[in-house]
Amino acid sequence: MKTRNLLQKYGGSRGGGATIKDGMPSKPRLGQNFLEDANAVQRIANSLGDLAGRTVVEIGPGAGAITGALAARAAHVLAVELDSALAAHLRTQFDPARVTVTNQDVLHFDFAAASAAAGHPLCVVGNLPYYITSQILLKLAASHAVLDRAILMVQREVADRVTAHPGSRDYGLLTVTVQLYGPAEQLFTLAPESFSPPPDVHSTVFRWRFAPRFAELDLDEATFLPFVRKVFAQKRKTLANNLRAAQFSPAAITAALAQAGIDSHARAEELPVESLAALWHSLQASGTK
After folding, report:
1. Positions of CATH 3.40.50.150 in the chain
2. Collapsing DSSP states into helix, strand and coil, what is residue 264?
3. What number of CA atoms fall less than 13 Å from residue 239's CA on the CB side?
4. How would CATH label the architecture of 221-285?
5. Strands 20-21, 24-25: parallel, antiparallel or unpaired by DSSP?
6. Which CATH number is 20-209 given?
7. pLDDT tens string 237-289
8. Residues 6 or more apart from 110 whose CB is under 8 A from it?
């Protein structure tokens, strides 16, 4: 299933009508589909590993199904919920000494401050609203310095892109962006019937360990990420064509491709991060911006 706004670039959508969960109406416009599979709840919580003494940030706790499992394992849970009615409901369900409910858009949540207060890097878990999946992933990437690991549920097609390998049809900008900040692996997939209301898509849970590769590959984060966006600008075009569209000179492109050992007809989707890094280094060495 594709959506107009996100899946064209990264992926993500969720559908379904309103229902009632613990007396709370779901709001499809907020991507609310409540997880009702008790086994899946335990698998998600277990996938975070040992949480003794740890603080966990839960993105979009909804009616609190996963929150309870986390609170039983972690020292503290920071539940970030956009819906004010659900946030108020959650506060009545959990001991505030164990679960702090924040009525806030996670895109504005201060992970650094939360990590400083906890005294250690944070673990993250979330059933991400599909309509802002990419923005949340980018928010987490930007906060990588204060994060340890995340267990995230997303649309299956998005998980396929996040964990894709070079040369596959799912490999692209989202793949490279996420994997630059650490390895991602799929854990399991849930059918729509695991949720209320059932979404229009399958959902996949994946693990993301935050271990940025910029230092390892000698990359400047501020300039390499825009470069990656340029080489993937038109996925079906060759690297050379995308670089020409980005105003790199033909001579510089030819020389950089040769120096990096990349075929002149190659497309970005065929290349691992290491090759893209080599191409970036070659262009930087030539003085081309």
Report:
1. 20-209
2. coil
3. 27
4. Orthogonal Bundle (1.10)
5. antiparallel
6. 3.40.50.150
7. 999 999 999 999 999 999 999 999 999 999 999 999 999 999 999 999 876 65
8. none
